[in-house]
Amino acid sequence: MLNRRQALAALPTMLLAKPPANACDTHTHIFGDFARFPFWSGRTYTPPPALPAAMAAMHKRLGVTRVVIVTPSVYGTDNSATIFGLRARGKTARGIAVIDPKIPDAELDKLHAEGFRGVRLNLATAAAIGATEARDRFKATIARLPRLNWHLQIYVRPADVTTFKDLILAAPVPVVIDHVGGAEQSRGLTQPGYSDLLDLVRQGKAYVKITHRFISQGNSPDLAQPLIAANPSRVLWGTDWPHTDSDPHPGRKPTDLSPFQPIDDQALLRRFESWVPDAATMTKIMTDNPARLYAFD
Asked: Structure pTM?
C-alpha cells in the first residue's frame, strides 16, 4: 500500500478551473480558545485551536464559498464554538449540533436561528454500549427533528450501517452518514456494511459524505465511484478540516495536546475530482445537494 506522501504524489496534477458556484464544504470543525470554549471532561483527545479565519483562508484557496460546521465530540453537547464559527462566517454557513435528546424545544429554536440545520449522533460506540441502547438513542434523537425540518447525521463504524439500516429506511427526516460509513478502501467492496450503505444511497434513503478522511486513504476510487454512480443526488463532499487526530496513541492521555494531521486539502480535492465523471455531477455534489439539505438561501 502507498504511504501518504506517495499517494499524494500520484494525484492528478490539475484542479478544475474552479469549483462550481456556491460550492459547499459539508464537514468542518471549529476549536476555539481553551479558556473561552472549554472542552468536555469526557473527551478522548485534546486538539489545538482551529479558528474561523484559518478555515476561511483554506476555503479561499480551494475556491469554496459555503461551509457546514459540525460540533466535534470534544465539546460534548456544548455548541458554543460552532456558534462562534457560524457567526464569523454569516449566511454562507450552516451548523450541525450535538444535543441531549431531552433539550427543550425553545433551545432547539435558538440553535435554528443561529443557522443549525441538523444533529450529529455518534453511534460508533454501538458495540460498546449495545445495539439496543444505540438504537434507542437514534430513535430518541430523530424524534426531535421533524418539527424544524432538520436532518440526522450519524457517525458509525462499517458494520453499524447494517445495524441501523431499518431505522434509516423508516426515518421521518433525511439521514446523513459521515465519512463513507467508516469504510476502508483497503478492505474493498465486500467489507461489512458497504453493500447496505450502497443500497441506502441508491434508494435515496441516506446521504453519504465523502470526506478527506476517506479520500486520504489511497488512490483507489473503488468504494466512492459506485456510490456516486448509484445516486449522485445523495452524495456530499467535505474536507473534515482541520483534520483532527483522535485515534489513541500509546502513552498519550486524553488531556495531552493532539496535533492536527498534515493534510493537503487541494491535493485531496484533486483526487476527489478525478473520481467524479463530469462537471454536472460535480455541481450536484458540491452545490445542489448541500443547498437543498442545509437550506441555503
From this structure: 0.93
